[in-house]
Write a structure and sequence with these properties.
2 copies of one chain form a homodimer. By secondary structure, the first copy, chain A, is mostly helical. Chain A has 16 helices and 2 strands. Chain A has a two-stranded antiparallel sheet with strand order 1-2. Chains A and B meet through helix 4, helix 6 and helix 7 of A and helix 4, helix 6 and helix 7 of B.
Amino acid sequence: MIERRIASIDLPSRPAGLYEPVRYALEGGGKRLRPLLAVQACLACGGTADEAMPAALALEMFHNFTLVHDDIMDRSDVRRGRPSAAARFGSNQAILSGDAMLTFASCLVSQVPARAVAEVTAVFNDMALRVYEGQQLDTEFETRKNVTIDEYFEMIGLKTGALLSAACRIGAIIGDADPATADALAEYGMELGLAFQLRDDWLDTFGDHATFGKPIGGDIVNEKETWMLITARRESHGELDSILAEDLEPQEKIRQVTRLYERLRVGERCDAAAAEHHALAIAALDHAKFSDESLKQFFVDVVDRMASRNI
Amino acid sequence: MIERRIASIDLPSRPAGLYEPVRYALEGGGKRLRPLLAVQACLACGGTADEAMPAALALEMFHNFTLVHDDIMDRSDVRRGRPSAAARFGSNQAILSGDAMLTFASCLVSQVPARAVAEVTAVFNDMALRVYEGQQLDTEFETRKNVTIDEYFEMIGLKTGALLSAACRIGAIIGDADPATADALAEYGMELGLAFQLRDDWLDTFGDHATFGKPIGGDIVNEKETWMLITARRESHGELDSILAEDLEPQEKIRQVTRLYERLRVGERCDAAAAEHHALAIAALDHAKFSDESLKQFFVDVVDRMASRNI
């Protein structure tokens, strides 16, 4: 249903140069996790899917907007197995069409049920700023070698957690949830986001190339400050820094760092950290009041699917 | 008062890398015409300056956001006599901080008086899309040699007129104007915008270097599709195209095209076209009902100042 509603979002047709990239970015697929969480959170609190739909689409529009702009900043040519919008249409076009997506997201937010519009708008805009802050910290980490685990969690909480958390909270608000339930679902979304990012980082090194869709080891080549890199740096008595200081070929660099990760068991421990946040997500659900207890199962299933995902 | 309120917009301080460029862009000065129009339109309809202020600041925030992103796309290093945000902080930072400005604009829009928030939000988001559409057309014109005068007016109506028009309409809505007055003030803003852009294009060729703040003749060097260039192409029986086809030094190109403009009197006629739209702006005021007739004078004065401006 969400896929169909995304396809039927009413975009102007002209000028085509502005709106074609918007359509392209939205049609790229993806898990549609954010709109799904919003709709299910609304249902869980007694609302309807139709009531949640404008907000659900706003969240998906916003998410894709961030991907369009991130791919310019990161010079990423590939997104979901296709050329990124920046690669396909040029970075100037991706800037402008991305701006239009952010404005469309605001338009969609303004279409939520009138009784909820003020609160949803506030949560949405606050979330957007957090996502930018997370992206900013992520960028700043690129030129630092002393990022702490706390800073890493702050960054992924902003960059990844805030949007999943807001999706749950917004759905709950539209479903007219009591504040404790809205908080509980928001906490669920945050923990899910933290676990999601830990799993993502783990897959980047230990995933299966055939299913992951990106080359394995990109984070190591780029020396990205992940849970595993930060932990390995702290525990390897300078060995990680020695490897990174060498002028190694990418494949050799990946091989040596992966071997170090294996020796220090940081892969398993990263996976365990993800599992811990998955458990916290499940635990948060205990504080939510579901209009029908069977609606809780969706949120449990999402965690199970995320925990075992290979893509 | 507007300047003071802009300076006191409550921006987060951290991460500084994200918010410092926002502050920088806002502090660059400028005429503050858009917030002024919104406040005065609100006063003209019987509202207060305080009621109009969040929307006024949203409009100024939005305007500066478009400049930040435009300067990336146009690779403009200078804005208002200082380095552009893109030049000062890099284009990646300018993308992200610009995004934050657009979200801040939405935050400010949500703070208008509750009775007006739905209508103001709709006008604001609709305006934003028009501005992007205008920017898109402007970009597309760069690779075309057959732009018509009608297309030119469509483009400047979107890129420049829509924002001034929305500033007036939003002020009127907040001042609780009757629909005819809101329409009249919106029309005033649109005509003011068209005249503003015509004057801007004229100044680019015939302005005084000492006061204009940009090098004279930039539009000619870039073969920008302005009212003057389009008119000269249409009336010069191929002479304009011949000049542009030559591989001339910039100063020589400016000299030859300016001489052609003088021969065809397109400079005076562009100025006359601006005057015509100034007159239409004044005429539109006749259809507005002012809460106090003396408040009309501000709008007349703006036109007079714009008509004679050299910067």
